[in-house]
Amino acid sequence: MQSVAKLLEDDITPVAQGAPVVLIVEDDLNMRELVVNVLQKSSVDMKLIPMDSPQHALHFLENHEVGVVLTDLRMPAVDGLQVLEFAKGCNELTQVVLFTGYGTVETAVAALKKGAFDYIRKPFDNVELCSTVEHAVQHYVLSRDNRSLREQNQALSEGMDLIGQSDSMQQVQRLIGSAAAYDCSVFISGKSGSGKELVARQIHMQSKRREGPFVALNCAAIQENLIESELFGYRKGAFTGAEKAKPGLFEVANGGTIFLDEINNASLSLQAKLMRVLQDGSFYPVGDIKPCAVDVRVLAATNRNAAELIENGELREDLYYRLTVMEIRVPSLRERREDIPLLTYHFLDKYSKGFGKVVKSVSTEVLSALMQYSWPGNVRELENVIQRMMILTRTEQLDIDVLPAELVQNQQMMNRAIDYMEPQTLEEIEIYFIKKTLADTGSDRALCAQILGIDKSTLWRKIKRYNLEETDESVPA
Ligand SMILES: Nc1ncnc2c1ncn2[C@@H]1O[C@H](COP(=O)(O)OP(=O)(O)OP(=O)(O)O)[C@@H](O)[C@H]1O
Ligand SMILES: [Mg+2]
Prior knowledge:
binds magnesium ion, Rossmann fold
């Protein structure tokens, strides 16, 4: 038997990031070796660590992440129940399987109530031992993945606000609220980079599933023939190279939400299988004959026109209607230009923190160029442009010298160079632009709204809010 210190050096550091540790606590040498021999043949990834005494095991549990503890119930000094309590105290995700002899089954049942995963009677059957430990390992892996996804989600959600005050984005916010309140499927449409995934995340974060995982798969990002195994997982030997079983994303997302982006990239036969999950909540892992049941909410999206996709035979009509209990259309950025300043300052703030480089403002010329550009790549493109400018700038303000060429050209084409000013706040910039444009257009509100890329009612509200009725004397120079 290796000493604990030796185990620490040799095995544990690399193991902690890979296969889950299975701790075998058994004082009888022959029995220990037998258990190790049986479990070594398992197809499930696990790292076996035999221990000859519960004291060593407790010390080990205190200092390492252990997936499964396989312990004898009756041992001198420390018994299996104490090991169970200790293991759960160290890490509630650790699964404990107990060996029981005759006469100890009742205690084993009591152990189940205290959170043990299962018990195995001695003398044990090799197949039963193997499958019980495999289940315990899989249970541990799934709950560990689930926890880390939850933590990632929490971290991600902090920088995941859906920015936008335009009428159309307020409508999107309202629909997100309704979608979050009901556990229904939602179909999200919108051009590339418009924020469909962010909308899906918001639905998840505002729903009762928020504590569960959020899993996103872009069906266009992986080969069509791999999507199925990615979603549904596979069993050992399902195809050449499948040496170990792998759970699919539906299993990982159990209790939470799965977001399938660019759903039309899934083959029609896979779309039929997705229908089944939506109808019965179950699917067949590749190479398995038993269905696997899950509780997952499905959100799907496409950046193409759904009607056209159906007509071209790229999207199953029945799947589309099944998914579209609710539909949310995310507007393109050029349809809501009034959100550009807010988004710009949001990204300044986000990347000032991320880059550790303080950029406080954007020059009026730059903001004007951002407002006029057509944004074929939508918010993602705006985010990239801001990031690029923040990397290039040497001052605390983004100025025309770091503006990408396509935006400079665009601005020249529009021939609407405006006077330079030092903006203080976002509101002041907005007031400045409205005053200036009203003056330039002789207070023609329709034309003014058109130039600013907002609708007339929005302009009217802003004029009222900022009290800009009398613009003549206050027009900036
Ligand atoms: N309203 C918004 N507020 C803040 N950030 C946004 C907003 N919309 C989009 N973004 C950001 O823009 C980027 C692209 O968004 P997202 O991935 O949600 O777009 P998408 O519509 O799913 O794109 P694709 O069609 O290419 O998959 C992300 O970094 C996202 O955080
Ligand atoms: Mg997306």
